[in-house]
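Readers of this paper often ask what the protein records in our data store actually look like. The remainder of this section carries one protein's record, kept here as part of the documentation.

:::
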Amino acid sequence: MGKLRIISDEKDSTDIVKSAISAEVKRLEIALSRTDREIRKFEEEYHTSSQRFLREFTAEDLKGLDEEYVRWAGELKLKERILEDLKRLKEIEYVSQTAI
């Protein structure tokens, strides 16, 4: 992962950045929870894992056909993106001005 360095003479500026990143992490965690609930609904309805769904299912295998297939696959893709974003944000390291 690359490095992001934010340098400011004012401590408040750094706090604002930390606060914004923290708020985004919280927003993503809420979105992840919602996405997980949607995925669980599909898995429970069809009595199968999402991994099996991706490997073996087609739209014709689902009651809602194309629309339902796209929704389930879309939730899985969204989860993947959310997890990637969370990982990147949580890897951010804050370094004090004196350490630079």
